[in-house]
Structure formats: C-alpha cells, structure tokens
C-alpha cells in the first residue's frame, strides 16, 4: 500500500541500495495510479504515499497524473497531494466523513494518517494529520461504550455474520484500537494481551492496521480517555451527522443523522438515512441498544431482514433496511416498519450487493425482528411486552404485532419475529436511579399511554415514556422511483415537532453534545477533568488544552515499556533489566524491552509488543502476508536488523513468554509488489 511503502522507505531509506531505490522501487511507484481517488480510505492511502514519495525522490519528473493525463514532477505531485489532503481533512470539521466509525475502515484511516504524521516534512500536513486523528479519537470516545461502538455507524462488513459479535472479543478492527487506547474500560480478559478472533466479518489484512497506531509517535489527547470512560459524566444525548461520499470531502452533509443517548449503565443509538439507489443502498448499522454487563453479549437490535436470502445463508446482515424508520428521544425508541410485498429497488442497485438479497426480491420478508441476549439476568413477557433486566438496567420492548420466539438462530441470542407488512416496535430503557425495582419499572411501562395506528400508507405511534415525555412517530413515505430516497419520519416530543438541525443540514456542525461539540470548524471537549479545543477555522489547526494533568497526551505506561532497536548489542547503559520488576516505562510506542540470549550466549535485547500475534495472522495468503510485511514488520525492525522476532508476552508480571513468531523476510527481499500494493 502506498502509505505503508512511504512510511517504510522514509524510515529505512538507507537500508536500500541506490539501485534498489531507483531501478526496482521507483519504476513501480512511478507508473502507479497514485492520484485516483477511490473510497475515503483508498484516497488517504494513495495520496499520503504519493506525498511521501515526492519527498524521497524530489527530482523525479515522471509521476503519472491520471487526473490531468500527463506526467508531473515531484514538486507538482507534492503540491497537488498536499492541497487535496488539506481540503479533505479540514472537511471533517464541517461535515464529517462517510466511513464514519466503520469497524473495518476507520483503522485504515488511522494507518494512513499515522504514516503522514510520522514522516512528512511539511508542518501544515503534520498539524492536519494531528487534527484529523484528534477528531477521530474524540468521536470514537464519545461513541464508545465499554469496548463497543454505539450505533449507527457506517460500512459494516458485507461478510455473513453468523452470530452477534461478542463484546469480550476483539472481533473487528476498531475494537483493536479501542483495546490499545482504553482496554481498562473493556470487557476483554486482559489489558496486557489480546488476540483477534477469526471469522468475525473482518478483512484479514486490516487486522494489523491497529498495530501501526501503537508504533506511531502520535498519541491522542489524554482528556479523551476520560470521555471514553464516561463514568463521571452525566447521561447525555449526542446528535451528529455523516455526509454522503464525494471526492476530496465534497459530499453533501447529512446523509445520516444520528441520535445517541449514553448513560453509565446503557446506551441507545439510532439513525435516519438518505440512500442512493444506484450505490447499493445502505451500508449502515442503523439501531442498537447496549447495556453494561460482564456477559459476552449485551446488545439488542430491531431489524427488518431486507438483506437475508431465502436460503438463510446470511443469518443477520448488519445493514439497515429502507423499510424501517426510527424516532429516538433520549432512551426511548419508536421504530416503524412499512414493508412492500416486492422489492421496489430490484435490478436498480449494485449487482454485487443485490446477491445478498435477490432471492427475496419478489417476496420480501414482511417481519420485524428483535434480537436480545439469552443471558439477561431476568426476562418477563406480559401483555405483549418483553422486559429485560441486566443488573440495575431495565429494558422494555413492545413489538406491536404478535411475535414468535426463535431460540435456535444463535447460540446466545433469542430472536423475536413479529409479522406484518406494517408494524412498530416501542422501547424504553431506565435504571435503578429512576425505579427502585424492576417490578416498578414494568408497572410504569404497562400504565403508560400507547396508541398505534398501522395504516398502510402512514403507520404512526404515540407513547408517553416512563420519564413522562410523550413521543409521536409517523412514517414518511419515500418516492421509491427516485434515484435517492430519504427515510426521515415525522416526530414530536411533548407536542413540539422535531425539525432537523439546520447546522447539520448545511455543513456547519458535525457533533453536538454536552461533552463534545464539533461546530463551525472548532472541536471542543468539556469534561470535569478539563477542556480542550482544536480550532481549524483558519489554514492551520490551533490546539489548546486545559487538562489538569501534567501530560496532555495519552500514554500507556501501565501496559508497555520503553522502545529501542531490535537485536542490537547492549552497551553499559543498556544492561537488561527484569521486566517483572523494573522495566523502563514510556507510553510512546507500545513496545517493551526484554533481555534475551542468543545461541552463542551473547547478550542482546529484543523489543516486544504486548499483543498476541497468532499464527492465523500469518497464514500463507499473499494478500495478507504482503500487507502485514509492508505495514507492520519493517516498523518493528531496528536500524541494524535484517530480520525481526516478535515476542508477545501476556503480562509483564507473568514473566512468561506466550508466543514467539519469527518472520523471515529480510529487507533485501522486499519486492516491488509489496511496496506498491
């Protein structure tokens, strides 16, 4: 990948001979189509790489400019890529980005931005990379719930999901980054080691992108750890927007409008969407409730199975349906369903996506599905309601039409299937702070006024929630013949129409909440622990931080120790110390020092990363192997080293070696295909 190649070449330029640089590597890069855009993550990978290449070969004049159809100089390449990178990254502060909180692709953004931050000679680009990553981590922290991303989020994997992802596992790429930054708040077994789990709908080669975050010199502002923790914050509602895709950040704002409610014990998130018919319809995870627990499952989803085939090969595709519309006020959700008999979009969307659902094109599944964990502490079904209790959190769910319970779909989740072309699901969530007992909560829900009208043209619901607010929701029928549909219902709260925020609609704001706001190109965090701001109204972002801590950038000193060169002979200053007792501490690189002895009993020092590298990560897939080599391996290697040994230790106190992997790919054998992928 170009960004990884640029990082490798910049860091290890003197390890390549002049012939290797100019006769082997340069011809490949020179003829690569580096300026094509592709998706947002493709753009960053290519343009960051191209910019770094222009630094490395300043006198080159044969780069391909596929946009203008000519060859250009390194000076022209540097200026063009700089301009487009700045335009794109600055747009995050006015309308966000399309691959928002993607479990698959956000870590790819980080990988490219780390490459830029660590290797560019341009101070404007370095500041832009810093501001972009600060935006990403602030957004992640505000939408983080004990290791999970609060829905909705974009670009979930198209891979069949045969079971709900467990919150105790690192089963997608963004969770690996969460673990790196905030493992102490997660439900994973250890803050010292972690392993990726296979078959979790994750692209294999991207498993390693989070590792580059550990190796980078960049660290997020320390204040964002308190935001991710959330335990000392009052419950808050977060509203945010996601734009449609457009090259160089030119997409229109408000393709998705998000509503999130976060309490210390639970979170509720939902979205309303616009959908382009010719682009395959939605890649968004649209609605989810999650509660705090030590159980491995903790999510509740309301869902129309638009993406399920008749053969059941896709048990639960985590993509939203155009026939479901959501209204949310704080911890209350009303989800409306209006499902036609036949798919009005058949044959009009991307063929590669239609294969996920074309078996039902003439007979759509006219059901609303609810998935919830079997391990909930208590489940009560009465008067059409399903009540769940987990600890001191209470959840009420009411599918309006009769439902059937399916217990064998997933090993640890129940599924309720409520039939009907029109339908509604009403949900309310509260805690022991509002109701002393689960019985009191159930009584309040059952006594609350609820009116449902399943008129085929405009289904509607009116519900007074347990907090005393009356919420109404009414279906707005989109024009299915249009190239783009808007699935925005009409909503009121206590009689007041809930109009969409013009700041979101017009690209003046991205996020609004009590702890985090991004508006008018200024990111502001306000917490009891301190305040910080990134002001990008002018050409260069300006950072300010009033955090009470003496260290304004985050660190991981409790989990990792000081970096150094791999396999170098120790000097008198390098006397190995027992990592169990007094390893040097630094949170900059995510590497730890351990004493080793070679076969000839010569002392040496091996630097280790406290994350398990499993053999599955090194399967003989050319695609995965090259990506691993190009993105991670050379960054682990010291200045005098041709090979790298990665020793992964489960715990600094355990003092035992969990996994050692020798990767025998010396720099001299790096191929052009590795560098240009």
What would your notes on this structure say?
The strands form seven sheets. Strands 5, 6, 7, 8, 9, 12, 16, 17, 22, 25, 26, 27, 28 and 29 form a 14-stranded antiparallel β-sheet that branches. Strands 10-11-18-15-14-13 form a six-stranded antiparallel β-sheet, with helices on one face. A hairpin with a 5-residue loop joins strand 20 and strand 21 (470-474). Helix content is 23%, strand content 26%. 49% of the residues are buried. The radius of gyration is 26 Å and the shape is globular. The longest helix is centred in the N-terminal third of the chain and has 22 residues, at 74-95. It is built from 15 helices and 33 strands. It is of the alpha+beta class and 677 residues long. Helix 5 runs parallel beside helix 8.
Biggest sheet: strands, sense, closure?
14 strands, antiparallel
Shape: globular
Q: How many β-strand runs?
A: 33
Query: Can you tell me the residue ranges where pLDDT is under 50 for at least 5 consecutive residues?
Result: 557-677
Bin the helical content.
Answer: 10-25%
Strand content bin: 25-35%
Estimated structural class: alpha+beta
Gap between N and C termini: 4 Å
- Average pLDDT confidence is 79
What radius of gyration results from the CA coordinates? 26 Å
- How many helix segments? 15
């Amino acid at each position: 990948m170009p960004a990884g190649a640029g990082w490798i070449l910049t860091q290890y330029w003197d390890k390549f001979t002049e012939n290797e640089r100019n006769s082997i590597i340069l011809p490949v890069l020179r003829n690569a189509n580096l300026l094509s855009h592709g998706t947002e993550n493709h753009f960053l990978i290519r343009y960051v790489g191209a910019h770094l290449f222009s630094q490395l070969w300043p006198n080159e004049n044969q780069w391909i400019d596929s946009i203008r159809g000519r060859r250009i100089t390194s000076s022209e390449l540097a200026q063009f890529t700089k301009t487009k990178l700045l335009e794109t990254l600055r747009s995050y502060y006015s309308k966000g980005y399309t691959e928002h909180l993607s479990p698959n692709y956000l870590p790819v953004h980080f990988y490219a931005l780390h490459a830029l931050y660590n290797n560019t000679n341009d101070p404007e680009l370095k500041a832009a990379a810093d501001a972009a990553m600060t935006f990403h981590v602030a957004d992640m922290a505000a939408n983080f719930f004990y290791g999970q991303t609060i829905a909705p989020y974009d670009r979930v994997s198209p891979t069949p999901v045969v079971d709900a992802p467990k919150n105790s596992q690192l089963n997608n790429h963004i969770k690996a980054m969460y673990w790196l930054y905030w493992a102490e708040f997660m439900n994973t077994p250890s803050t010292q080691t972690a392993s990726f789990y296979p078959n979790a709908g994750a692209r294999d080669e991207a498993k390693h992108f989070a590792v580059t975050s550990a190796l980078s010199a960049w660290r997020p502002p320390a204040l964002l750890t308190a935001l991710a923790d959330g335990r000392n914050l009052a419950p808050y509602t977060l509203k945010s927007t996601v734009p449609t895709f457009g090259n160089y950040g030119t997409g229109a704002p408000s393709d998705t409008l998000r509503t999130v409610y976060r309490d210390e014990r639970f979170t509720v998130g939902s979205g309303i969407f616009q959908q382009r018919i010719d682009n395959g319809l939605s890649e968004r995870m649209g609605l989810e409730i999650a509660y705090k627990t030590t159980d491995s499952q903790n999510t509740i989803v309301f869902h129309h199975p638009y993406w399920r085939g008749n053969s059941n090969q896709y048990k639960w595709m985590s993509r939203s349906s155009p026939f479901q519309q959501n209204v949310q006020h704080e911890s209350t959700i009303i989800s409306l369903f209006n499902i036609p008999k036949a798919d009005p979009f058949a044959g009009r969307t991307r063929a590669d996506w239609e294969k996920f659902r074309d078996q039902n094109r003439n007979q759509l599944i006219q059901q609303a599905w609810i998935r919830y964990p079997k391990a909930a502490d208590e489940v009560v079904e009465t008067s059409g309601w399903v009540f769940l209790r987990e600890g001191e959190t209470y959840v009420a769910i009411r599918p309006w039409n009769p439902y059937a319970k399916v217990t064998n779909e997933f090993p640890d989740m129940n599924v309720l299937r409520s039939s009907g072309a029109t339908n509604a699901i009403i949900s309310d969530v509260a805690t022991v702070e509002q109701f002393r007992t689960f019985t009191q909560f159930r009584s309040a829900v059952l006594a609350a006024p609820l009116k449902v009208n399943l008129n085929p043209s405009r289904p509607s619901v009116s519900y007074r929630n347990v907090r005393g607010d009356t919420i109404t929701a009414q279906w707005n029928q989109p024009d299915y013949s249009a190239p783009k549909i808007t699935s925005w219902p009409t909503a009121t709260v206590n009689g007041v129409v809930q109009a969409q925020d013009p700041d979101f609609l017009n690209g003046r704001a991205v996020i609004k909440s009590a702890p985090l706001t991004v508006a008018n190109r200024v990111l502001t965090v306000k917490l009891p622990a301190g305040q910080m701001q990134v002001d990008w109204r002018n050409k260069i972002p300006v950072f300010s931080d009033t955090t009470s801590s003496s260290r304004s950038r985050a660190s991981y000193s409790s989990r990792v120790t000081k970096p150094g060169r791999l396999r170098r002979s120790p000097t008198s200053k390098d006397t190995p110390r027992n990592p169990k007792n007094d390893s040097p501490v630094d949170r900059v690189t995510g590497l730890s020092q351990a004493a080793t002895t070679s076969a000839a009993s010569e002392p040496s020092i091996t630097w280790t990363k406290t994350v398990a590298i499993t053999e599955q990560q090194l399967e003989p897939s050319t695609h995965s192997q090259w990506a691993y080599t190009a993105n991670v391996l050379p960054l682990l290697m010291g200045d005098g080293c041709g090979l790298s040994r990665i020793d992964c230790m489960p715990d600094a106190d355990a003092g035992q070696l969990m996994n050692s992997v020798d990767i025998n790919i010396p720099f001299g054998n790096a191929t052009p295909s590795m560098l240009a992928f």
